[in-house]
UniProtKB/TrEMBL annotation:
The keyword Glycoprotein does not apply. The keyword Transferase applies. Belongs to the citrate synthase family. This is Citrate synthase. It comes from the Eukaryota. It comes from Digitaria exilis. InterPro entries: Citrate_synth-like_lrg_a-sub, Citrate_synth-like_sm_a-sub, Citrate_synthase, Citrate_synthase_AS, Citrate_synthase_euk, Citrate_synthase_sf. Keywords: Transferase. PANTHER family: CITRATE SYNTHASE, CITRATE SYNTHASE, MITOCHONDRIAL. The active site is at H307, H353, D408.
Length: 472
């Protein structure tokens, strides 16, 4: 049953989309009715039995329907294209890009509540959407901001654990150490040890996920200030929303940077379930490891250069171009540098994708942000030039399935523009954002009672024999 909000600035789009609820993944529009509407947990409580029934029906009515054939290439090729898991919060289309609970990025930018009139979405709104499938009101988002703030206090031992590492340790190592130290407070682990019934697993998972999301900005900003700002931490500003407060604690208060951080977190939250970090979080969680353990594992996947670390690699690569050619790099010099990178056996960071076959809409919306707020920035202009130069070269290589830029090709130059120039830190920002998608799905994993993940592996000998027998 769909409820309609009263007529607001975005009401035309909202009502059009509400009418198209089935084509847009069943996103619902919620009318503010009572104080409990402001409570995310009670919203979930209502939704869970409905979704449990839906899953039961899917299993009993369609459990034996075939979803395609697995071939040897897929087994040897990193399971590309193999449908292998349930992930409710978002879905990725190779041509169109990501939809969060049925909504594309431009649609989210239109309908999710903002801090600034006509500005970027508040990530708390996207978290609400990911968890419930419903577009929240501004009041609901404000209430969630306050709830996250109330949950954000970090025990002293977490900072001590980080301090035990050399300051030269990679920011992702320091950040993940902080997450592991937060695990000491896991409500799920405590409840499980006491003997919790399966039907209630989602409840302490919810507590852990909300606490984790709330505590990541203070931990992440501590890491940043420890490494790059002589350890001088900045107190939270309780009047600010999640993203703005994070930016403030990092040391960046320019209103445009606050808007960038809102957009940045929103678009990095989730990218369906098969990417390395999301899949890892889901896999580890399936063993009933608590959300801290699951998310720390996910972060270790994110820290790889073919995944989240690519945002660091992009800015370092761009800076190396300028170092070698000077600031007024020509198109020919750029082409030469791209070829030099490829010939040295390296990838061009920020280009290509395991699923996408077009320009990543997360790249496009960052480009729009740059065109609006920093069109003259020389690094942005270089990124624009790369958009023209790199895809034809990757196409010419003949083996790259997607020559177009992904999310990481753009984020660094935006952050750099506002003074956050330390590229080695960038993946931590990705990690903070990704907690919202991975955490939301972990709650649903437990609510739906999803089982231990345990696919079958085989040896080369097994494959050879199987293929021989098949051919005979
Ligand atoms: N530069 C050079 N070679 C590339 C690139 C690239 N940007 N992208 C793909 N290739 C190569 C790839 O290494 C492979 O070569 P080989 O057969 O010699 O092993 C070949 O093209 C086919 O790869 P694809 O099937 O097109 O891509 P795949 O799905 O295997 O990998 C990525 C996807 C994202 C790992 C790959 O495109 C890549 O390495 N890109 C650069 C790193 C990057 O930007 N990663 C960030 C992804 C987004 N994120 O945030 O996680
Ligand atoms: C992501 O956001 O996780 C990346 O684009 C990688 C992916 O989707 O495989």
């Amino acid at each position: 049953m769909a409820f309609f909000r009263g007529l607001t600035a975005v009401s035309r789009l909202r009502s059009r989309m509400a009418n198209e609820a089935t084509t847009l993944g069943g996103v619902r529009w919620l009318q503010m009715q009572s104080a409990s509407d402001l409570d995310l947990r009670s919203q979930l409580q209502e939704l869970i039995p409905e979704q449990q029934d839906r899953l039961k029906k899917l299993k009993s009515e369609h459990g034996k329907v075939q979803l395609g054939n697995i071939n040897v290439d897929m087994v040897l090729g990193g399971m590309r294209g193999m449908i292998g898991m349930l992930w409710e919060t978002s879905l990725l289309d190779p041509e169109e890009g990501i939809r969060f609970r049925g909504l594309s990025i431009p649609e989210c930018q239109k309908v999710l509540p903002t801090a600034v009139e006509g500005g970027e979405p508040l990530p708390e709104g996207l978290l609400w959407l990911l968890l419930t499938g419903k577009v929240p009101t501004k009041e609901q988002v404000n209430s969630l901001s306050k709830e996250l703030l109330a949950r954000s206090s970090v025990p002293a031992h977490v900072y001590k654990a980080i301090d035990a590492l050399p300051v030269t340790a990679h920011p992702m190592t320091q950040f993940t150490t902080g997450v592991m130290a937060l695990q000491v407070e896991s409500e799920f682990q405590k409840a499980y040890d006491k003997g919790l019934s399966k039907a209630k697993f989602w409840e302490p998972t919810y507590e852990d996920v909300l606490n984790l999301i709330a505590r990541l900005p203070p931990v992440a900003s501590y890491v940043y200030r420890r490494i790059f700002k002589d350890g001088k931490s900045i107190e939270a500003d309780n009047a600010l929303d999640y993203a703005a407060n994070f930016s403030h604690m990092l040391g960046f208060d320019d209103p445009k940077m606050l808007e960038l951080m809102r957009l940045y977190i929103t678009i990095h939250t989730d990218h369906e379930g098969g990417n390395v970090s999301a899949h890892t979080g889901h896999l580890v969680g399936s063993a009933l490891s608590d959300p801290y353990l699951s998310f720390a594992a996910a972060l270790n996947g994110l820290a790889g250069p073919l995944h989240g670390l690519a945002n660091q690699e992009v800015l370092l690569w761009i800076k190396s171009v300028i170092e070698e050619t000077g600031s007024g790099v020509t198109t020919d010099q750029l082409k030469e540098y791209v070829w030099k990178t490829l010939k040295s056996g390296k990838v061009v960071p920020g280009f290509g994708h395991g699923v996408l076959r077009k320009t990543d809409p997360r790249y496009s919306c960052q480009r729009e942000f740059a065109l609006k707020h920093l069109p003259e920035d020389p690094l942005f202009q270089l990124v624009s030039k790369l958009y023209e130069v790199v895809p034809p070269i990757l196409t010419e290589l003949g083996k790259v399935k997607n020559p177009w830029p992904n999310v990481d090709a753009h984020s660094g130059v935006l952050l750099n523009h506002f003074g956050l120039s330390e590229a080695r830190y960038y993946t931590v920002l990705f990690g903070v954002s990704r907690s919202m998608g991975i955490g939301s799905q972990l709650i649903w994993d437990r609510a739906l009672g999803l089982p231990l993940e345990r696919p079958k592996s085989v040896t080369m000998e097994w494959l050879e024999n199987y293929c021989k027998n098949k051919a005979a």
